[in-house]
Each structure stands twice: as structure tokens, then as C-alpha cells.
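Review box. Two proteins, two foldings.
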Amino acid sequence: MSISVEPEVDETAAHVAAIAAAVYAVLGAHRLVHIHEVPRGPGWTATGRLAHHGSHLPRHSPR
């Protein structure tokens, strides 16, 4: 059996505090009601992939 000398630290609280401080610095005093991760669907990746592949197309300049 092993016993930790130091208590476990919850990094989530530190991340939420950092996000709240950044929002306050940019927007000023606002009330944060809910913070959550936004799921990324296939549309997000498809848009990025389209932009990336589109950058490889040759550009035709008008003559």
C-alpha cells in the first residue's frame, strides 16, 4: 500500500480560473454561466480540409 504525501491537485479548477481571467481581461465584467467543450463534428474537419486542399490549386491570373 502506498500513501501520497501531497494531496491530488485538480487541474480543472485552474483551467477554469485561467479561462475566466482571460475573458475578464478581454471583455470586462461579465457573468460566465456555463463553460463546456464544444463537440467537433465532421463539418469542422471538412471545412479545414477544403481550405487546405484549395490552397494547393494553381491560380489563374487574367491576361
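Next protein.
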Amino acid sequence: MAKVDGASEEQSALIFLGTGCSGGVPKAQCLIRPSNPACPVCSQSLSVKPEHNPNYRCNTSLLIDYCETNGDHNYILIDVGKTFREQVLRWFTYYKIRWVDCVLLTHEHADAVHGLDDVCSMHQSALINNASQLPIYATQECMDSVLSRFPYLRKGEHKQGVVDWKIIEENFEKPFIASGLQVYPLPVSPHRSLYGALVRPSIFMFL
């Protein structure tokens, strides 16, 4: 991402809402059916309050607090996973964040999109105060996958006044502006063609 004219770097901030895996940390299975010996990370995860506990992590998500020179704040949310509601209760209330200006979806997996209903409901209440539609930036493939699971987010459905889909291209040379920030799409392959993800006996691959 790149700053555009009018940004105030001193007052802007990055808030890591979550840095955990899809199932989150602690893993539920480790707590209800602990191994022997018990997993040290999960077993210690409940010993300290979540906000001070490195072993208590929600789905990966980042909130960019982009402050302009006039003091206005723009909140850009990257990914809204299954634990988004918990992230709101923990961090939005702590930092007194009352709205989200736009959402960027990196991919279509549950740990990145299954909190969309919560963020849309949160934004829907803001419409009462004449807030604009919530822009959601995603690739065509990602949007199609999301709409197959959340068909009511299609244009023409009852929440059409909440969501404004913005299709982006997976091309680094075609950046776009999201709530004042210039974003450069960087295609990566986190789950496809991973060497070692599906290992066959006696077959080795080296990078």
C-alpha cells in the first residue's frame, strides 16, 4: 500500500485484529480433548487475558487506521473471518472504533470472509446516520464464491443498500484507491501448489 497526498503518518496506525490460523488459537480440540502431554500453547492460552496473551489469537485480520491531515480517520479492514465478532468486542471497543470505511478481501476462505454478515450488520446501523454503502474490494473469483454462500449480499437483495462490490484485478501494475490509500494487488498462492501439502510416499520435492 502507498500513502496518497494528505496523509498524516504520525496519527495513522496498524491494528492487528488477529494473527491466528483458521481455527484460531487456542484450538478447541486441544482444550476439550488435550493430548498427553498437553499442548503448551493451548493449555496456557486461558491463563492470561486475551488482550495480553500471545497464545490467544483470532483469524488473521488487519485494520488500517488512516488519518488524514485534517484529523479525519479512515478505517480499512483487511479480511473478516469467522472470529470477526470477537475481534470487534475486543479491539473495536478498546480503540473506540465505531465504523469501517471499506473491506479488502484477500481470498475466499472461511477465515477471511465468514464475518461479512457481522460487518454488514454493523454498517447497516450506520446507514441510519446517512453513511454511504460499504465498499468491499475483491477479485471476481472471490466475490463469486462469497455470493454463493451469502446470496443476500447480491445487488437487488434486501441488503443491497449496505454493500458496494468493487472488483479488482490480480495485477500489481493496476493499483486502486481504497478510502484514501493506494493499494497494489500482489497475487500469491497460499494454498495452491504447495510443495509438501499433499505428500506422496517416496516422492520428495525441493525448492
